[in-house]
Predict the 3D structure of the following.
Amino acid sequence: MLETPRLLIRGWRNSDRAPFAAMNADPEVMRYFPALLTLEETDAMLERNRAHFARHGFGLWAVELKGPGEFVGFIGLSVPAFEAHFTPCVEIGWRLGASCLGCWPGKQIHQP
């Protein structure tokens, strides 16, 4: 687990599944992605992430707001499963819920 003044970056919990699925179905969060994700697609993503950790020893970590303990997304490193002119590589990945969009140090986190 990693800790910042406002966040806990930690392993995934079963209790993260529902808020993660809701985040992946939010049009504002997924604005720059090809499509919203269903619950089944979210579960498949979580399984791929578990397999990634097992294979590479790193992956996408859950992010939680300190204090309220609210799951707000993920951040981490991953090896893309697709081929492109820039692969193989390691990429930085993140996805944050709508309550955190537009946040940066010194700005308050928007609470729903």
Notes: The chain has a mean pLDDT of 90.
